[in-house]
Amino acid sequence: MGEQFLLRNYDRYPLSLEAGKGCYVWDDAGNRYLDFITGIGVNAFGYCHPRLTAALLEQAQRAVHFSNLVSHRDQEALAARLCRISGMDRAFFSNSGTEAMEAALKAVRARAVPGRSRLVALHGSFHGRTMGSLSVTGQPCLRQRFVPSDVEVTFIAPNDHAALEAAVAYDTAAVILEPVLGEGGIHPLDAPFLQQARGLTRRVGALLIADEVQCGLGRTGRHFAYQWAGILPDIVVVAKPLAGGLPLGATLFTEEAGQWLPPHSHGTTFGGGPLACRVALEFLDLLEETMPQIEPLAAQFLARLEWLRQRHPVIREIRSKGLMFGIQLVEPARPFVQSALGQGLLVNDTQETVLRLLPPYIIGETEMDEAVRVLDGVLP
Ligand code: PLP
């Protein structure tokens, strides 16, 4: 049957998957692959984690959907948990990262007073594919043909302190940052840059939005990557791993920022349903137990990648924060993704020349060694 009836919007790898367990997936023909991209950062606890599966099955027998006309206990419990770990006060639930970002942008727009509507975002950033999120995404190839040219966004380079100082002024409504740029090729923002963004936005009265869709929820060894810089944004956006593979996004607001989305200003049919919220609560329980191991695991894997770098001149640089790794090559990465697939390892290429690895939080030495052995075999 093939892909005859699917829209041709994806440039997929030649792989058709059927099942997964732990750190591994299996294709239609029964071949096994070590998954070091985890559904682009979604399957943080691998596939079919027994506790996530049990929570899902148990809740599926109670109720999958109610609607946001009514309240339910797990949505309230999840909001409370997310607020506690993030330092925010209010949560809005949606179904994806891009929707979670749209809610943040709507709050900024609702708050905007005349003369204060300009946004500041980063070159190379990625915030999603819907029109608002795309308008603050710093990748011209994704924006072109979709975002009107009169949208008021100033893009600056990540970690460019002088450009940030120059860009944030009294006409700025918000600064939007990914504390670690993910799709952009794994570029961590340095702590002084995040602190400067917080200081400047406070000084001019603009909002600071942290997009933690890829780098949040334990991926860097903290609940949120902005916590490494000791700052508190006004709005935090999360999604990807939150509900163990079920679609769930959350926009977290300070009390003050949340007031700009009063009753009837925003909403969703599916967001924050009982099934996703129940699994997300289990995910957060698991995360509490696992988080202390994330940094040590990341250090062990980084040491192996450094060993690889010394052996392969095609590697120009390794960038990382926690369990986010960008292997910067001096040539296109796609052929190496395909050779790695042939050797049973699933990784991803981004920005043409970067091999991106987002391994699950449950990897051990065996999986690390296996991934490095495959990369050692396929890189020149
Ligand atoms: N923000 C960041 C940092 C992302 O990495 C992504 C997706 O990769 C998004 C937003 C959009 O999320 P989604 O694809 O769930 O809409």
Molecular structure report:
The protein has two domains: 17-49 and 292-378, Alpha-Beta Complex (Aspartate Aminotransferase, domain 1), CATH 3.90.1150.10; 52-285, Aspartate Aminotransferase, domain 2 (3-Layer(aba) Sandwich), CATH 3.40.640. It has 380 residues and is α/β, with parallel strands linked by helices. The chain has helices spanning 38-41, 50-60, 73-86, 97-111, 131-135, 140-143, 161-167, 191-204, 255-258, 274-311, 334-342, 365-378, and strands at residues 17-21, 24-27, 32-35, 90-94, 118-122, 153-156, 172-177, 180-181, 187-188, 207-211, 235-238, 249-253, 315-321, 324-329, 345-346, 348-350, 354-357. It is globular and about 60 Å long. The longest helix is centred in the C-terminal third of the chain and has 38 residues, at 274-311. The strands form four sheets. The protein has a seven-stranded mixed sheet with strand order 4-12-11-10-7-5-6, sandwiched between helices. Strands 1-2-3-15 form a four-stranded mixed sheet. Strands 13-14-17-16 form a four-stranded antiparallel sheet, with helices on one face. Helix content is 37%, strand content 19%. Pyridoxal-5'-phosphate binds next to helix 4.
